[in-house]
Specification:
mainly alpha, elongated, 0% strand, 203 residues
Protein backbone atom coordinates (compact mmCIF):
# COMPACT_ATOMS: atom_id res chain seq x y z
CA UNK A 1 0.00 0.00 0.00
CA UNK A 2 1.26 3.51 -0.81
CA UNK A 3 2.61 5.55 2.08
CA UNK A 4 1.93 9.15 3.08
CA UNK A 5 4.57 10.78 0.88
CA UNK A 6 3.55 8.63 -2.12
CA UNK A 7 -0.16 9.49 -1.95
CA UNK A 8 -0.47 12.77 -0.03
CA UNK A 9 -3.89 13.66 -1.47
CA UNK A 10 -5.40 10.40 -0.22
CA UNK A 11 -3.94 10.64 3.28
CA UNK A 12 -4.43 14.37 3.82
CA UNK A 13 -7.93 14.16 2.35
CA UNK A 14 -8.84 11.49 4.89
CA UNK A 15 -7.30 13.48 7.74
CA UNK A 16 -9.43 16.49 6.78
CA UNK A 17 -12.56 14.37 7.33
CA UNK A 18 -12.06 14.69 11.08
CA UNK A 19 -12.75 18.41 10.82
CA UNK A 20 -15.28 18.25 7.98
CA UNK A 21 -17.38 15.45 9.48
CA UNK A 22 -16.49 15.41 13.16
CA UNK A 23 -16.86 19.16 13.70
CA UNK A 24 -18.55 21.01 10.85
CA UNK A 25 -20.66 18.04 9.75
CA UNK A 26 -21.68 17.09 13.29
CA UNK A 27 -22.71 20.69 14.04
CA UNK A 28 -24.75 20.91 10.83
CA UNK A 29 -26.52 17.60 11.43
CA UNK A 30 -27.27 18.63 15.01
CA UNK A 31 -28.75 21.93 13.85
CA UNK A 32 -30.89 20.18 11.24
CA UNK A 33 -32.12 17.65 13.81
CA UNK A 34 -32.75 19.96 16.77
CA UNK A 35 -32.89 23.51 15.40
CA UNK A 36 -29.91 24.86 17.35
CA UNK A 37 -26.15 24.48 17.44
CA UNK A 38 -24.16 22.30 19.88
CA UNK A 39 -21.32 24.83 20.42
CA UNK A 40 -21.63 25.59 24.13
CA UNK A 41 -18.15 27.14 24.36
CA UNK A 42 -19.31 30.15 22.33
CA UNK A 43 -22.09 31.06 24.74
CA UNK A 44 -21.88 33.73 27.42
CA UNK A 45 -21.96 31.16 30.24
CA UNK A 46 -19.17 29.03 28.80
CA UNK A 47 -16.78 27.61 31.41
CA UNK A 48 -13.49 29.57 31.10
CA UNK A 49 -11.27 26.61 32.06
CA UNK A 50 -12.91 24.39 29.47
CA UNK A 51 -12.65 27.13 26.84
CA UNK A 52 -8.95 27.62 27.64
CA UNK A 53 -8.32 23.89 27.24
CA UNK A 54 -10.05 23.97 23.86
CA UNK A 55 -7.71 26.77 22.75
CA UNK A 56 -4.71 24.69 23.82
CA UNK A 57 -6.11 21.73 21.90
CA UNK A 58 -6.48 23.91 18.81
CA UNK A 59 -2.84 25.02 19.10
CA UNK A 60 -1.50 21.49 19.58
CA UNK A 61 -3.68 20.28 16.70
CA UNK A 62 -2.17 22.91 14.40
CA UNK A 63 1.35 21.76 15.31
CA UNK A 64 0.34 18.14 14.69
CA UNK A 65 -1.25 18.98 11.33
CA UNK A 66 1.78 20.98 10.17
CA UNK A 67 4.09 18.07 10.96
CA UNK A 68 1.92 15.61 9.02
CA UNK A 69 1.57 17.96 6.03
CA UNK A 70 5.34 18.53 6.05
CA UNK A 71 5.96 14.77 6.05
CA UNK A 72 3.57 14.39 3.12
CA UNK A 73 4.74 17.26 0.93
CA UNK A 74 8.32 18.14 1.90
CA UNK A 75 10.82 15.29 1.34
CA UNK A 76 13.51 16.95 3.45
CA UNK A 77 11.28 16.88 6.53
CA UNK A 78 12.12 13.24 7.22
CA UNK A 79 15.84 14.09 7.22
CA UNK A 80 15.53 16.63 10.03
CA UNK A 81 16.04 15.47 13.66
CA UNK A 82 12.49 16.40 14.65
CA UNK A 83 10.95 15.08 11.41
CA UNK A 84 12.72 11.73 11.19
CA UNK A 85 10.39 8.72 11.69
CA UNK A 86 10.90 7.13 15.11
CA UNK A 87 9.36 3.79 14.14
CA UNK A 88 8.29 1.88 11.05
CA UNK A 89 4.89 0.27 10.69
CA UNK A 90 2.83 -0.77 7.65
CA UNK A 91 0.44 2.06 6.67
CA UNK A 92 -2.44 -0.41 7.02
CA UNK A 93 -2.03 -0.25 10.81
CA UNK A 94 -2.64 3.49 10.79
CA UNK A 95 -5.57 3.11 8.42
CA UNK A 96 -7.25 0.48 10.60
CA UNK A 97 -6.96 2.60 13.75
CA UNK A 98 -7.89 5.91 12.14
CA UNK A 99 -10.93 4.58 10.23
CA UNK A 100 -12.22 2.82 13.36
CA UNK A 101 -11.63 6.01 15.34
CA UNK A 102 -13.46 8.25 12.87
CA UNK A 103 -16.46 5.93 12.52
CA UNK A 104 -16.67 5.40 16.28
CA UNK A 105 -16.47 9.13 16.99
CA UNK A 106 -19.26 9.94 14.53
CA UNK A 107 -21.43 7.12 15.90
CA UNK A 108 -20.95 8.33 19.47
CA UNK A 109 -21.77 11.93 18.51
CA UNK A 110 -24.90 10.97 16.59
CA UNK A 111 -26.01 8.56 19.31
CA UNK A 112 -26.02 11.32 21.93
CA UNK A 113 -28.87 13.07 20.11
CA UNK A 114 -29.93 16.35 21.71
CA UNK A 115 -27.54 15.87 24.65
CA UNK A 116 -24.47 16.31 22.42
CA UNK A 117 -22.46 19.46 23.26
CA UNK A 118 -19.13 20.93 22.24
CA UNK A 119 -17.93 22.70 25.36
CA UNK A 120 -19.46 23.39 28.78
CA UNK A 121 -22.02 26.14 29.38
CA UNK A 122 -22.62 26.81 33.06
CA UNK A 123 -25.77 28.73 32.16
CA UNK A 124 -27.25 25.86 30.16
CA UNK A 125 -30.36 24.02 31.25
CA UNK A 126 -29.77 21.09 33.58
CA UNK A 127 -27.87 18.53 31.47
CA UNK A 128 -29.49 15.20 30.69
CA UNK A 129 -27.40 12.12 31.44
CA UNK A 130 -26.89 10.07 28.29
CA UNK A 131 -26.10 6.48 29.23
CA UNK A 132 -27.18 4.62 26.09
CA UNK A 133 -25.39 3.44 22.97
CA UNK A 134 -21.61 3.57 23.20
CA UNK A 135 -21.92 5.43 26.49
CA UNK A 136 -22.95 2.15 28.09
CA UNK A 137 -19.35 0.94 27.60
CA UNK A 138 -17.42 4.16 28.11
CA UNK A 139 -18.29 7.49 29.69
CA UNK A 140 -16.27 9.27 27.01
CA UNK A 141 -16.47 7.34 23.73
CA UNK A 142 -16.10 10.50 21.61
CA UNK A 143 -12.72 11.23 23.20
CA UNK A 144 -11.67 7.58 23.04
CA UNK A 145 -12.40 7.25 19.33
CA UNK A 146 -11.07 10.72 18.51
CA UNK A 147 -7.76 9.83 20.11
CA UNK A 148 -7.71 6.43 18.39
CA UNK A 149 -8.11 8.29 15.09
CA UNK A 150 -5.30 10.66 16.06
CA UNK A 151 -2.93 7.83 17.03
CA UNK A 152 -3.65 5.95 13.82
CA UNK A 153 -3.04 9.04 11.68
CA UNK A 154 0.16 9.82 13.61
CA UNK A 155 1.60 6.43 12.66
CA UNK A 156 1.74 7.60 9.03
CA UNK A 157 4.35 10.24 10.01
CA UNK A 158 5.74 9.10 13.39
CA UNK A 159 8.25 11.89 13.94
CA UNK A 160 9.19 13.52 17.25
CA UNK A 161 6.91 16.47 16.49
CA UNK A 162 3.94 14.35 15.37
CA UNK A 163 4.09 11.85 18.23
CA UNK A 164 4.94 14.56 20.75
CA UNK A 165 1.96 16.71 19.80
CA UNK A 166 -0.21 13.59 19.77
CA UNK A 167 0.86 12.88 23.38
CA UNK A 168 0.18 16.50 24.37
CA UNK A 169 -3.29 16.26 22.84
CA UNK A 170 -3.93 13.10 24.86
CA UNK A 171 -3.10 14.99 28.05
CA UNK A 172 -5.33 17.88 27.04
CA UNK A 173 -8.20 15.52 26.21
CA UNK A 174 -7.83 14.04 29.68
CA UNK A 175 -7.96 17.52 31.20
CA UNK A 176 -11.18 18.21 29.29
CA UNK A 177 -12.69 14.97 30.56
CA UNK A 178 -11.85 15.82 34.19
CA UNK A 179 -13.36 19.30 33.78
CA UNK A 180 -16.55 17.86 32.28
CA UNK A 181 -16.77 15.28 35.05
CA UNK A 182 -16.66 18.01 37.69
CA UNK A 183 -19.41 19.89 35.85
CA UNK A 184 -21.65 16.82 35.52
CA UNK A 185 -21.05 15.78 39.14
CA UNK A 186 -22.11 19.21 40.33
CA UNK A 187 -25.19 19.35 38.08
CA UNK A 188 -26.40 15.73 38.18
CA UNK A 189 -25.32 14.61 41.65
CA UNK A 190 -26.17 11.05 42.64
CA UNK A 191 -27.33 9.99 39.17
CA UNK A 192 -23.90 10.75 37.72
CA UNK A 193 -22.14 9.17 40.71
CA UNK A 194 -23.96 5.89 40.04
CA UNK A 195 -23.11 6.13 36.34
CA UNK A 196 -19.42 6.65 37.18
CA UNK A 197 -19.45 3.52 39.35
CA UNK A 198 -21.08 1.47 36.61
CA UNK A 199 -19.19 2.63 33.49
CA UNK A 200 -15.41 3.20 33.10
CA UNK A 201 -14.05 6.62 32.20
CA UNK A 202 -12.46 5.37 28.99
CA UNK A 203 -12.39 1.58 28.52
Amino acid sequence: MKELHDAPVLYLGFISLHVLLGHLGASLVYRLRFGRGPLAYRRTGADPTHTRLMRHITGASVVWAISVVAAALWPRWSELPWGRPLLTLPPEVGWALSVLGLVGMLAAQYGMGATFRIGVDAGDDSPVLHAGGLHRRSRNPIYVFSYLYLVGSSLWAPSLVTLGSCAVLGGLFHGMVLQEERYLSARLGEAYARYRQRVPRYL
